Amino acid sequence: MPEKNSVSWSAMISGYVKCGDLDMAMELFELAPVKSVVAWTAMVTGYMKFGKIESAEKLFREMPTKNLVTWNTMISGYVENCQAEEGLKLFRSMIGYGVRPNPSSLCSVLLGCSNLSALQMGKQVHQLIYKFQLYNDTTAATSLVSMYCKCGNLGDAWKLFIEMAQKDVVTWNAMIAGYAQHGAGLKALDLFDRMWNEGAKPDWITFVAVLMACNHAGLVDLGVQYFNSMARDYGVAAKPDHYTCMVDLLGRAGRLVEAANLIKEMPFEPHSAIFGTLLGACRIHKNLELAEFAAKKLLDLDPTSAAGYVQLANVYAATNRWDHVAKVRRSMKKNRVVKTPGYSWIEVKSVVHEFRSGDRAHPELASIHEKLFELDRKMKLAGYVPDLNFALHDVGEEQKQQLLLWHSEKLAIAFGLIKVPLGTPIRIFKNLRVCGDCHHATKYISAIEKREIIVRDTTRFHHFKGGVCSCGDYW
């Protein structure tokens, strides 16, 4: 009877958690005469679902018994709440306690590795998949493919992909998106054709990857053809994400009027991201009139959007309208909008080193600055001219050059040149779009230092080698 009673309480607690009534779930949990591991886990799930991480941690510590589902709930909760590092630490503890992971555990931890760009940890998880004989599980193998793509190791991703005995649509999507993100547009489109020919039915996510592939490769007309054929030839209805891809595709190519017209023709209300995308394209092409239109629409939909203010300020700065830049910044301050700080990071010997522009905190800053000054001198001798359009402050030329030299991606690259052995690619990751001057400078650095430098930003991967970038300066 007590066991049946425990099951009933657990079912009710789980039901309230699923309905989103966390207070009632907690009330029942406290009243339950016997608290099963299912009830404890349900409460941990609820707290993680609503971002109450400290409450979830407290319950997890107090639990008299934990099962694999409990561990998985905590690990996935950390990853979903942007605390992937904590998730990876907990996964290590789980393995240390002798708990055998299942595909769900591995998918969560691999997603954490992808978010952190923690390639070495991802490789360790790859070994665990073989150790626990889970390599035939399609979900786990697909997560591995995705992790390698997102950590910049396209070769290992492809090797795994072709070795997989069973592939589902998620597997195909992961590899197509991987090629797209790395700028290998034609390979992505060839793989899409192969997917279709092998009888795998594409879904809406497949077409996001296909349009992204066309975008990053500058295949504008081909992208338009794929967009128009989605519903007609493949039975896939266009979603807001597809329209965002198309606005980006047309905008990057300078076809801003077409992009704006496409937004007007959308069969549903435009969301804020689509105006943010148009605004980014206006910055690239310095179209002030359309930028002001896009910014107004974006801020009407989302008055707290830091991206809207920042992008508009950047357009004004690029056209030397410093009074307008100041006005935008005053408006941000008045509305208490905080800009997301840009930072770059690099993993060296399984330790992640993070840099912000003008960084003053890193313990090896003196040697990093010394390396940067040496690089600056060599680059200028080779013909590099700093692009002052990306020093978005109304200061003198010399100070602008100094600000550019200390951008976060350059600091991370200099550190990588000092620490990463010759013959090993330097992998840099950035939370914002790579700066145009840094992109220009990194081409010079790759040639001068004879090093391969891989940079992942929010948009795509850039592979620099011998003075050229895989994006062909189109990104």
UniProtKB/TrEMBL annotation:
The keyword Repeat applies. It comes from the Eukaryota. GO terms for biological process: RNA modification. Pfam families: DYW_deaminase, E_motif, PPR, PPR_2. PPR repeats lie at residues 5-39, 67-101, 137-167, 168-202. Residues 383-475 form the DYW domain. Coiled coil: none annotated. Keywords: Repeat. GO terms for molecular function: RNA binding; zinc ion binding. InterPro entries: DYW_dom, E_motif, PPR_At4g14850-like_plant, PPR_rpt, TPR-like_helical_dom_sf. Belongs to the PPR family. PCMP-H subfamily. PANTHER family: (WILD MALAYSIAN BANANA) HYPOTHETICAL PROTEIN (PTHR47926:SF410), PENTATRICOPEPTIDE REPEAT-CONTAINING PROTEIN (PTHR47926). This is Pentatricopeptide repeat-containing protein. It comes from Prunus yedoensis var. nudiflora. The lineage of its organism: Eukaryota, Viridiplantae, Streptophyta, Embryophyta, Tracheophyta.
